[in-house]
Amino acid sequence: MTRYAVKRKAKSPRLYRWKWTGTVGQTRLLHGEIIGHSKVAVTAELRKQNIDVRRVTKKNDLNSQGRIKPRDIMVFSRQLATMIQAGIPLLQAFQVVAESLKKPSMVALVHQLTNDVASGTSFSDALRCHPQHFDRLFINLVDAGEQSGTLDKMLEQNAVYKEKLESLKGRVKKALWYPTTVLLTGIAITLLLLIKVVPQFESMFQSFDAELPAVTQLTVDLSMLAQQLWLPLLGTATTVILLLRWLTRRSPALVYLLHRLLLRIPVIGNIIDKAAVARFSRTLATTYASGIPLVEGLATAAGSTGNKVYEKAALQTQKEVATGQQLHFSMRMTNRFPALAVQMVSIGEEAGALDTMLHRVASYYEEDVDNQVDALTSLMEPLIIVVLGILVGGIVVSMYLPIFNLGTVI
Known about the structure:
Layout: H1 2-11, E1 16-24, E2 28-36, H2 39-48, E3 52-61, H3 70-85, H4 90-100, H5 104-118, H6 123-128, H7 136-148, H8 151-206, H9 214-250, H10 252-263, H11 268-289, H12 294-304, H13 308-322, H14 327-333, H15 339-351, H16 354-409
Antiparallel strand pairs: 1-2, 1-3
Domain Type II secretion system protein GspF: 76-199, 280-402
Transmembrane segments: 175-195, 229-247, 383-403
Protein name: Type II secretion system F family protein
């Protein structure tokens, strides 16, 4: 299937958005936009609608505009589920969804799916031709929905799952990026003051021909050091970041090590830890409730954790379950999953309600992540204000201190 998908993708004609002008009945002038592979195909399609085409011009290429993000797939799943629930046939639902989408690359993807399904390919097989956009869970849910006649429910379930997962990712990103961004901004402002503002005061201090206060002298020395080293330090930092990105793409062991170190960072590591458990539980609950075998669901859940340490633990759990071990026992053997999660899974297995308990585990840890992110944000805001106040205020005070001393002498 992978070779087939690659081959088909290579031969797939490019889609363009065309502007057209035409008439109906020799009197009524119409104009609009349409998507197609070529001018000839667009003209033929308009003539089928009894439109006398006067002009067709290419507007833009849909295949190269905008990267498709998980949120785009979530919206597509939600809209398609709504169309099918309303009783609209699948091909017509594709067309309606494509017209409502604004991102050109997403419109092109939906048109490719439409063409595949119209040619006799099943919806799930059409999705398999685009593994870079549709994950294993989405494909499995659609496959199960086609076989059971519940495609709308499966699409709705996938949309709900995607929404919860994207919400959780957003909370984790906020926990990581908020303090980092503010801290980097503070460092940038401090360097700007040391490099651009302090030298102006320094030239004025030289005219005083007097010994500067210790704090002011320290600031001046730091300014001279920053002027000499800021460019080499910036180059070194950029090189390290680029090298690290290059290495992480080629070294799974390094990625695993970095993810393991992330889990050990105070507060933030705890947030990442619980977010990984929530993702694992939510994905496994969704696959299990959809009738997907537990072993296959564990493989899907492993890839959704967002952390290589938990991914390894989930794959180890999968191997244990494949040999006949119970899920909760296999999870406990990894020494990674929290005791509460293991106990709730054990209760779910005994009661025959594993999917329900997994959903509760996911909801519990998602709420815990939300609370910890809110607490971290509330804690960081005054702390960051204090740090920035000390850095910026310290520089300003140290620069004006000689002027105040001069005023007292006069």
